[in-house]
Amino acid sequence: CQVIVHDVNELTEKLFPVVEAMQKHFSAGSGTYYSDSIFFLSVAMHRIMPKEITQIIQVDLDLKYKTNIRDLFDEFDNFPEGAVIGIAREMQPVYRHTFWQYRRENPQTKVGEPPPDGLPGFNSGVLLLNLEAMRQSKLYNQLLEPTMVQKLTEKYHFKGHLGDQDFFTMVGMEHPELFHVLDCTWNRQLCTWWRDHGYSDVFDQYFQCEGEVRIYHGNCNTPIPED
Q: Which of 80, 128, 130, 152 is the most exposed place for a label (fewest CB within 10 A)?
């Protein structure tokens, strides 16, 4: 087993020019902080990792594994043609909220609607990055350009604060074909914040997850069940 440690400052230096333009749309702070770039690492991982690295799994720290992470690598084999990233759906109505203006202007839209038919957005706690596919995808690399980011944020009236997750969610509304949707059991989010903040009537439509959980995600400091 080979472990390679990467210097955060070095990575941030490479990242900043690629993600600087999107930070103002998807960062909690007002403005573009150099240090914030690290929250966009996954977006441009294919640009800063050595060419010989072709696949990466990126995960949050607030996870509990109920199965061998090696099994998750098998999901790379299930990517449809054109898909570059594997990611699970967001399990709260956060994007129902964020896209409120677009939804009001487009009452028939699936944007922000719950699964299985809606587009609830993504959660970046568990990410499968097919770096080779990301490098080769003309479409994906076009979407990283500042003019494209600006165009999409204007179309969807989008202002977020969750970094890479917001970028993937917005791009997924426009180009779902770039994503392989992981089953909710690979990223079983536990946060229920939005249930108590105005969305109790629809919350369970987003939050339900059938099947045996393989990875628990204790997001928003939610305790993870003991075995």
A: 80
Alpha-carbon Rg of the chain, whole angstroms?
17
pTM attached to this predicted model: 0.96
| Closest-CA residue to 56 (of 66, 41, 67, 68) | 41
Report d(CA 152, CA 187) in Å as an integer.
Answer: 27
Task: Report the SS3 class of residue 215.
Answer: strand
**How far apart are the C-alpha atoms of 227 and 221, rounded to whole Å?**
18
Which H helix or E strand runs over 122?
strand 122-130
Look at residues 213, 207, 180, 210 and name the one whose alpha carbon lies nearest to residue 96: 207
pLDDT digits (tens, 9 = 90+) for 181-192: 999 999 999 999
**Those residues with Cβ within 8 angstroms of residue 75's Cβ, 6 or more apart along the chain or in another chain:** 86, 128, 180, 182, 186
Q: 3-state DSSP helix/strand/coil percent for the chain, to nearest 5?
A: 45, 15, 40
Summarised one tens digit per residue, pLDDT across range 58-86 is: 999 999 999 999 999 999 999 999 999 99
